[in-house]
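The passage that follows is intended for readers who have already worked through the single-chain material. We present the inputs for a multi-component assembly, then the predicted structure in tokenized form, and finally a short commentary. You are encouraged to pause after the input and sketch how you expect the pieces to fit together before reading on.
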Amino acid sequence: MSKHLQAPEPSQQPKHPASPADFTAACAGLAAVLAADVESRELAGLAPHAEVELFRDAGILPALIPAERGGIGLGWRELLTAIRPILRVDASVGHALAYHYVNSWRINLNRNADSIAALEQETAARQLFWGGAGNPRDAGLTLMPDGRNFLVSGRKFFATGAEVADRITASGTRADTGEKLAIVIDGRGSGVSHPGDWDNIGQRLSASGSVIFDNAIVAPECVLGSNEQTGDPQSPRGSLSILLFQAVLCHLHVAIAEGALESAAEYTRTKTRPWATSGVDLATEDPYIRTTHGELVSQVRAADALTWRATERLIAAMETGWELSDDARGEAAIEIAAAKVSSTRAVLEATSKAFELTGARATARSAQFDRFWRNARTITLHDPVAYKAQEVGIYELTGVYPTPSAYS
Amino acid sequence: MSKHLQAPEPSQQPKHPASPADFTAACAGLAAVLAADVESRELAGLAPHAEVELFRDAGILPALIPAERGGIGLGWRELLTAIRPILRVDASVGHALAYHYVNSWRINLNRNADSIAALEQETAARQLFWGGAGNPRDAGLTLMPDGRNFLVSGRKFFATGAEVADRITASGTRADTGEKLAIVIDGRGSGVSHPGDWDNIGQRLSASGSVIFDNAIVAPECVLGSNEQTGDPQSPRGSLSILLFQAVLCHLHVAIAEGALESAAEYTRTKTRPWATSGVDLATEDPYIRTTHGELVSQVRAADALTWRATERLIAAMETGWELSDDARGEAAIEIAAAKVSSTRAVLEATSKAFELTGARATARSAQFDRFWRNARTITLHDPVAYKAQEVGIYELTGVYPTPSAYS
Amino acid sequence: MSKHLQAPEPSQQPKHPASPADFTAACAGLAAVLAADVESRELAGLAPHAEVELFRDAGILPALIPAERGGIGLGWRELLTAIRPILRVDASVGHALAYHYVNSWRINLNRNADSIAALEQETAARQLFWGGAGNPRDAGLTLMPDGRNFLVSGRKFFATGAEVADRITASGTRADTGEKLAIVIDGRGSGVSHPGDWDNIGQRLSASGSVIFDNAIVAPECVLGSNEQTGDPQSPRGSLSILLFQAVLCHLHVAIAEGALESAAEYTRTKTRPWATSGVDLATEDPYIRTTHGELVSQVRAADALTWRATERLIAAMETGWELSDDARGEAAIEIAAAKVSSTRAVLEATSKAFELTGARATARSAQFDRFWRNARTITLHDPVAYKAQEVGIYELTGVYPTPSAYS
Amino acid sequence: MSKHLQAPEPSQQPKHPASPADFTAACAGLAAVLAADVESRELAGLAPHAEVELFRDAGILPALIPAERGGIGLGWRELLTAIRPILRVDASVGHALAYHYVNSWRINLNRNADSIAALEQETAARQLFWGGAGNPRDAGLTLMPDGRNFLVSGRKFFATGAEVADRITASGTRADTGEKLAIVIDGRGSGVSHPGDWDNIGQRLSASGSVIFDNAIVAPECVLGSNEQTGDPQSPRGSLSILLFQAVLCHLHVAIAEGALESAAEYTRTKTRPWATSGVDLATEDPYIRTTHGELVSQVRAADALTWRATERLIAAMETGWELSDDARGEAAIEIAAAKVSSTRAVLEATSKAFELTGARATARSAQFDRFWRNARTITLHDPVAYKAQEVGIYELTGVYPTPSAYS
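Having made your guess, compare it with the prediction:
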């Protein structure tokens, strides 16, 4: 690997979980650790350097990298199942973690096989953490040729994970030729800075602030090819990364809802007093608490079931390889869009109405019970849900799949 | 089989579909036939004698009966997938058809193996149609011993399918001992009459009126054993029929919603004029039509995904056999209850809001477009959805599964 | 009045209610009469000739006409209050009745004072019933000069009340000059025919089918002036009729919802059995029935309160006269649009969910309990509610009032 | 007045607004002042001492006190209209302010006329601020006779305004006789302390923490009589304070919703970028933003209209005096309960969905745009909305009004 990429020394010898079961157990353990102080960490809202070290030490970062390259060799199904408990208790750091997996995996959607192999091997060996800098609503990055390297410059907002990342995926436009290239940037290298401008109401630990590149060096090994979305119109596969981000968002939505309802149930069981005129001895026997809880859980289960069905369809598309058809991609895109609509509605309703189960005292700030809604409200605005519904509607009305783009 | 059971001569030699693929094709064909005049049949609202003959002639009635007993040998997964197109276009007759499968299969939840085998063989050989007479809110049926037979008397409302059935499942209480027994009654036999009192706003072709038994003969071969729900408290398996009915209702809910939205899309594409101030040339380009359609489809897809996940859990429970645990039954029960809540909400919203896609002219009675809502509104009242939500809530709050009962 | 206008002989001497209190009592009596057989009349769905005779005999038709012209001299506030009971029990005929008042009053928005006076006097003297033929989505009517008269030709759909009307308001375009004129047509005259094509799922007694004019004679006294919407751009007053129609629709929405909930409460009190696992002795003690009923009533009361506030604003605008400002009209238009959105949501939810209070047996067709939803679903499609919400949104976002048009 | 009551010296000569118009203008000015730094004050969440001084200096505190006692002499209608702008921009301090008016007015519901007169005169003269300590879910306060005074002891949670109050309304039980008495406590006196335990997610400036009384002196002039709710069962008037609190909560709900939507509109106009695939140049032209905004505004307007109608009914009840009937009180109670249900739904939906109008960047913490939802979510939990819906349902189903109690 290029000397320009400098990875941190691992704080200790990584202990790679050796199997899916090990990995699942490691994630459960991490979820418990994160749960212990999520309220105070969330309130402080610092960039999650400590949390990333926790993940690194646990050896979970190269989960998707094949065993022959030093990774754990999980598939997406096993991965998303195993990390769900983390997303439930701390969807904020969980966002950065889930995006790490997307960003470190999406390089596979490019055709530069040697670079991909080297990047994966290094990621596994050094337990590297990945972020992204791809917000399509900002101006693009510029790539200035400089000998065999490029120098990349520009600013990207909403660069989830970048502030704490060892490697950052991005794309940039060559100043000389106008060609758009997919690149990987050393997050620890010179010319990369973070204004620390992420202080939002939710997803506070997701490191989603902006990143500034000022002539940061991009070695040729870190140029993965023409941009996956725009550069390879023959290939529906190239744009699967967008669908993967959307699917991961659905998992985050559902996980936040599940976390809120689990917390609410625990609170109701242990702290909520029955209402004076309810005629029951325990809050858990209140008819309205029971039914409202049941309705919310039912909607969340439905969103979860659809999220998984969409995920299965996406996995099938990802496994199809380069011969993936437009229609197969389109079917996955529609199912994911529907899951986005359904999970958005479910998580917003669950995280807001959950307070009607717990009662007024759960509004104490110390409970941080509002973090579920704040997380939900923030992450569901990633891109407007009305346009996801529109995509589904257009397909059902006319049979036309969404054009692959920055959000579809 | 007893001479007391008289099956009609098949109108023609049954042509059993020989494979799941054949069966699926046969159902698709039947859906097309039913679609052709569903509006006029639905308006007339006659008992579906003709429709049952259609099913009989197509040879689809013994779908679940093992091949070695003369049936097609499908599993529930294949069956429910294959009949979905029928449920979409005509959920009213589809209700009777789906219940036929439940009623002819549920005898397997009893322990009288010889009778079960004989009943299945006869059903396959003669393409028998099954109904049920089990409404738990009515007074129970009485069984009067009469030599080796029983004479059954009483009235049951909401006996879906019974009016057009060759065999009717029921349970009754022995007048002499008070024992409750599961029985099968010859629907064509003496002492069985149908007041023809089903004239409801929806599910008009489901033959869901009442049935009266006046000393109808029940031969000993048609006594299947102690009542499945109450008679065998050691056995969670015995009460799986209730969950199966509930799961089938979820499939009906989803199918009605799908049918409504497909019809609405077709209408919008071909007949709806764009609104004057919409600024678009086609109704399918109207932003509100697009997004509303997409939202409705998304909710229905979510309900469908959960319905299938619940169905898979139930199938696993059914396949477990007599050693099924309370917890495994309970998990299935909760998932099905959640699917009921989700699919109820989805189908009511879809069938009512669909008119906002098609516009005012779709209220012409000739379009019968309201039949989707009328069907949905009728079938979703089978048992109160609030109590299904309550079951989910109780489980989430306290970990307690629903007690097996007439609706849970 | 012109000999071309032929009114029916009143079946008996009209007994004009002499006061608002008399009028209110007369309407209450009519509501009771209509309630007695609304189910069977609604099922038959005939044009409401008999109902109009009932209104005529009761002397309620000239309610808004000043006493000095032979009318009762009510204002809109008193009228809408008094007829609400009629709209609750039979919103279908109530639709035609309410539109009668709009159509017979809207002539006041024209400047031809002598014709207006004569038409009002005749309406009072002969208890005339008014309909309209103004559906803006159809091609316009043509006016062919014929001596001092015009001959009007063309077809209008959704001409509520026209089939049973003595007088029909309309507008047409002069074939020679292209001028658009507001006219009144003798509904009993030659050249006016009704295809009887109103057979819709709801509002079946509203006589909302199409009307065909084939050289029907329009005497000069029945030309009221340039078309109110388009002809007098200096005058916001001219287009108040559109707002009045919209406000009346809101009253109909609320009334349907009230009727459905009153019927549901009566049914629940007298017929619904408590659910088996509810633990209560009466359905009215079921916690979910109580709360759901309360939620529906609350939403309907809110829609009603807004409907009345909007109506008050409109009445103020109507009373302002010709100096009405664009802004004052605009404020009324926005409040009415908001009431339309609110009342649409409320009535659809109330009429569909009301079944969850009454239970499954209320789906018996004999109860005709679905007529509330069918009426609601039909009338709320008068024009797309999404565009009413859009009008409110545009105003709130930009301060721009809706442009006076056929629906705004 | 007793020497035990020590009021602060007014920081400056109160400038009583001399008329309703002056008062309205003063409130508008205060709203502008509060709006300037509401975000930072809300974040800090300190007890609103400074804000109360602002109100005191503006002379608005004795708004409801008759002019002959030195007050401004407004009625509730004028007052609630005038303070609405304050509630919109800062519902958190607005909560304490609105409760000041309730607490300083509710003494009129007692029969001790001389004490009431004296307390009102002092309130006007010294611009006193009032809080309350009446949370019915806590243990009651104890009154120990001590010569001619009582010594009051106990703790009350959710004592909105008490921490910054000069006078605190409460009730306590005599240790010797068990009689329950309505009292007024000097908030600045000895024996009154505030743990400062209000650090909740919303309504952070409402001073809603607990208050501890440790032998605080209550002079005989500050004993107003038997407790208004329980002491005078003959008098529906005595319990009107509860309805007044509930009505004021409705106004707060609506005001929060209005504030959120106004802020969202401003943000959308000035900052939101149109979505990439929207095809429009301005966010305010986006069809989904327009319609969603319009739907939210419509629901809020409906809740507002019902809130006002309920308020009018309550004002009529308050003006009736001691002869108020149970039915008249009951009618007001039901309308207020319906307004609570409607306004709760409206404000929760508006404050959460408003983010879908503004887009992702509005989640920046600096915008504090989430404070609307946090305020809404906190205040709407005052008492469970399901039980308010239940009250409405019981009345509609059975005609029974709510029993006057701590929340009804």
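Commentary: Chain C touches chain D at residues 261, 265, 268-269, 284, 287, 289-295, 297-299, 301-306, 308-309, 335, 337-342, 345-346, 386, 388-394, 396-398 (CB under 8 Å). Confidence is low (pLDDT under 50) at residues 1-8, 10-14 of chain C. How closely did your sketch match?
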